[in-house]
């Protein structure tokens, strides 16, 4: 059976996720922006928290950890290379490692760019990937510590996952990302249809996360740096896709 995954709004625009294995009762929490909504979700579901996965060191993905652990002792998993900046880890992992949460295998992907040693976690059986601030709905994370080259390399890893994978990203930035996407892809009918759906979801205070990777591939400009239509709109026909991505990211930074 696939994981039962719950999206938990936190802070102003963050998301945490509970991933429950119905076969074994094991439950993983992906990122801990704040404790209260997560503790409430655990109480509502009566799930037993067994694991906490940390994608990267930023405070808005870790600040609720101590309070959650105080009530739900669990195995804390995060980047071995970034352990000095993370809370104490019970399991330190690196790219190409894998670990079990109940009967589900989580594969580790290094998606450096937003930060160095940022991790994503892919569940092949459940067709889910937890990307935090790397790949986002209609966008990607701002490049703070890494380089644009690193971020493009990270996105290419995620683009290679099965197209029916659900992308669980870490923020509700979709509407703002959509406004930017229109500036370089205004004639994309799939993007326009998606924006209409996003507007309806947000008008009803519904999350736009997760999103399907196939939809990101057809509408997210950051994943379409190889597309001749995007290159033409940027006056970069035939350019190296990494350079096109860099131009898109620079434009978004100044949008």
List keywords for this structure.
255 residues; six-stranded mixed sheet; Metallo-beta-lactamase, Chain A; globular; single chain
Descriptive notes:
The protein contains 8 helices and 14 strands. By secondary structure, it is α/β, with parallel strands linked by helices. It has 2 domains: 4-169, Metallo-beta-lactamase, Chain A, CATH 3.60.15; 174-253, no CATH class. Strands 1-2-3-4-5-6 form a 6-stranded mixed β-sheet, with helices on one face. A hairpin with an 8-residue loop joins strand 8 and strand 9. Helix 3 packs across helix 8 and helix 4 (174-185) packs antiparallel against helix 5 (189-203). The longest helix has 15 residues, at 189-203. The mean pLDDT is 97.
* Average of per-residue pLDDT values: 97
Looking at the chains present, what oligomeric state does this protein adopt?
single chain
Radius of gyration: 18 Å
Domain module count = 2
Give helix and strand order, one letter per element, not per position.
Answer: EEEHEHEEEEEEEEHEHHEHHH
Structural class: alpha/beta
The low-confidence runs, each spanning 5 or more residues with pLDDT under 50, are none
